[in-house]
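Figure 3 (text version): C-alpha cells given as input.
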C-alpha cells in the first residue's frame, strides 16, 4: 500500500488542531483561525498552494 504524499512531506509534524491545518486534518473539536504550523505568512501561502496542487493530483489519481 502506498503511503500518502502528505504523510511523507509532513512526517514529524503533529498539526495544530485548526480546521484549515495544512499538515493534518483534524477531527472532533477544532479551532478556526488558520493553520498555525507555519508562522511565516509568505511560506504559509506557498504551502497552501502546494497543498492545493497535491490535493488536485491525488483527486485525479483516485478517479483513474
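Below: residues designed for each position.
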Amino acid at each position: 500500500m502506498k503511503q500518502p504524499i502528505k504523510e511523507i512531506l509532513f512526517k514529524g509534524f503533529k498539526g495544530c488542531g485548526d480546521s484549515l491545518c495544512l499538515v493534518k486534518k483534524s477531527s472532533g473539536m477544532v479551532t478556526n483561525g488558520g493553520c498555525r504550523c507555519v508562522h511565516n505568512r509568505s511560506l504559509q501561502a506557498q504551502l497552501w498552494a502546494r497543498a492545493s496542487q497535491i490535493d488536485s493530483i491525488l483527486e485525479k489519481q483516485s478517479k483513474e
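Residues 57 and 63 are 10 Å apart (CA to CA).
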